[in-house]
Design brief:
alpha/beta; seven-stranded mixed sheet; 456 residues; globular; Dihydrodipicolinate Reductase, domain 2
């Protein structure tokens, strides 16, 4: 009997664990879940005979190595920066590894040794990255095989709140790590290529340069550019493509309002605020505004950012209770970004019966026999509740399916990799369809890059 070890049982692990439990007898393996807390894993395994939960401190080298040594395959659901230590142990003890995270530069250094050992270290096999890679490569390869030449590839993804749980003016709630949402877009200019011209959007302009897109049956959305849309050109075999753009989806109006926080400096994570734990929400806002002995915080903010009192953006700020005298931040030595995150979590946390929604759309423009074509491929997945979210489903299921396929030797090619080969994406996409994760594809008129779709 094979053994699968899952390290980390956070928010994205519910569907992963459930799927593996449903397949333990059929595929003949047992499951061990290691975490620093037993509460969530014990709840999820629910006394299943082929699963157990153990306390596991990832920083305890002896414990970590001992559990990895007993496994056949390790699934790391840890924060991305912790995968490398697990990966080194997997290489030492000749164990396969699966993660949903981007391949780090450190992870790449293990490729030759992993390959020589006949091991598979599958990365980027979650949602984005993950499902985006597999669904994109399926259509890109189909176009190539028909003799078509790629002209345009745009890819968008967003974790949103489902329409029935959309109860705030921002049309948004946290469906994944709130810190990543607050810091989104930082670390350098957004880079992409449009009609053969390289484009760069600095962070302070990012949320005013958004693109519109339509999702059939779900209406209109907006998307802001990801930090680096060009990193997958060579990986996808699209080095010569004139247009390539990747973006993050939000409901219309979110980015314009979020830009207020960016312009004020509230998303800055580079310095700490003195006395932050005693500050009220109102004190926090006032930090970023000029001193005035007579003007209120509200008046100063509206004047500085030229927001009318009847503007919806103003209503969105008020809804967050930003000007409350009495609510305290309660975080010691916090950065502005951490303080903003605390405020937002009070308003945007999913409630027990809230449902989230994953939206993904790809656009493929190509030329075939002298004629230009465009394919639109869209995915919408709805969550069930606060535990079995659409985010957990779309991150966890590809990880689980890949793990089983690797153990069964259905995926054979060794090395540090991401899921862009047919050997990987075809069976996983087929199984995802059986789980209700299916793209809707349709031919649409070729538009190329349409500047009328861009805001700002």
């Amino acid at each position: 009997m094979k053994n699968i070890l899952i390290i980390g049982a956070g928010k994205s692990s519910s569907s992963l664990i459930t799927y593996l439990l449903e397949n333990t007898y059929k595929e003949d393996f047992q499951l061990v879940i290691g975490d620093i807390s037993l509460e969530n894993p014990l709840k999820l395994i629910n006394n299943h005979h082929r699963a157990k939960a153990i306390l596991l401190d990832i920083f305890n080298e002896y414990e970590r190595k001992n559990e990895i040594k007993k496994s056949d395959l390790v699934i790391s659901m840890l924060p991305a920066h912790l995968h490398f230590e697990v990966a080194k142990d997997c290489l030492q003890f000749k164990k396969h590894l699966v993660t949903a995270s981007y391949i780090s530069e450190q992870m790449k250094t293990l490729h030759e040794d992993v390959k020589k050992s006949g091991l598979i270290f599958m990365n980027e096999i979650g949602l984005d990255p993950g499902i985006d890679h597999m669904s994109s490569m399926k259509i890109i390869n189909k176009i190539r095989e028909s003799g078509g030449k790629m002209l345009l590839f745009e890819s968008f993804c967003g974790g949103l709140v489902a329409p029935e749980s959309d109860t705030n003016l921002w049309n948004y709630k946290f469906t994944w790590n709130p810190r990543n949402v607050v810091l989104a877009g930082q670390g350098g200019a957004a880079m992409f290529i449009q009609e053969g011209t390289y484009k760069y959007i600095p962070y302070h302009k990012l949320f005013r340069r958004t693109e519109f897109l339509n999702i059939k049956d779900y209406g209109k959305f907006e998307a802001y550019a990801n930090r680096d849309s060009l990193k997958y050109r060579s990986i996808y075999g699209l080095d010569d493509i004139p247009t390539m753009y990747r973006g993050t989806i939000r409901k219309i109006g979110f980015s314009r309002a979020w830009n207020i926080f960016v312009q004020l400096g509230m998303t800055d994570d580079s310095y700490k605020i003195e006395n932050s734990e005693h500050m009220s929400y109102r004190d926090f806002v006032n930090l970023f505004l000029a001193y005035s002995p007579s003007d209120s915080v509200e008046l100063k903010l509206r004047s500085y950012l030229k927001i009318d009192q009847d503007d919806l953006i103003w209503e969105k700020l008020v809804e967050l209770d930003l000007f409350n005298h009495f609510k305290k931040i309660g975080l010691k030595n916090a950065t502005p970004a951490q303080m903003l995150q605390k405020i937002l979590e009070n308003s945007w946390t999913l409630q027990e019966n809230d449902k989230d929604m994953i939206v993904m759309q790809h656009l493929f423009g190509y030329e075939l026999n002298g004629k230009k074509h465009q394919i639109e491929s869209s995915l919408v997945v709805l969550g069930e509740n606060q535990t079995y979210t659409a985010m957990a489903k779309t991150v966890g299921l590809p990880v689980a399916i890949a793990a089983i396929k690797i153990l069964k030797n259905d995926i054979k090619n060794p090395g540090v990799q991401l899921p862009i080969s047919k050997e990987v994406y075809e069976p996983i996409l087929t199984e995802l369809e059986n789980c209700g994760i299916q793209f809707m594809e349709r031919e649409v008129p070729y538009l190329g890059y349409n500047p009328n779709n861009v805001i700002g």
